Amino acid sequence: MPEGRTGRMLLIEGALITFAVVIGFLVSDWGDNRQRLERAEEAQERIAAELAVNREEIGRTLPYWTEMMQRLDSVLAREGDASIWEREVPPGWRGLSPPSIRRASWIVAQSTGALERVPFGAVDEAAMAYEALDDLDRVVNEAIGALLDGQLERVAEWRRAFALLVDVGRGAEIMTTRALNLPSGSASVGY
What we know:
By secondary structure, the chain is an all-alpha fold. It has helices at residues 3-79, 104-112, 120-148, 155-180. It starts with a helix and ends in an 11-residue tail after the last helix.
């Protein structure tokens, strides 16, 4: 073969190899992006399901807390403040009966980077919902601690505990509902 033709063939072959390598990188990058997008969509679905369960748990618990707060108001108005253990407990009494709050999907999504492709607004709403759920857990744990430490002896103390649980529980319910009411369907929109 003439030397000019060999040089041209080598140049074409080099260009084809470079083109193939670039195409390979693009295909690999596309596959990685698709996988991250699928992970983000799955994280959204799981977080939405988890928030829905949490909202149901709070919705199940709030009526009880509200009812106990109102019944304790009646006891206070009728009989005054005294040891709760010296009288018959209000009908329907189940103690604190806290909701069972789940966080596993949120924690896993954060730790694996699955939220990287989820729009900031949706992640922010979910984060605020989980902060409200954390506040609720904190208040429940403080009430349990107070009970174990003997600080919930009087009717008024129990009434205050239930009032705080109702207030914080309503806040958590509102924030969870707000996070769930975002549009859903793909990782490019909210939950």
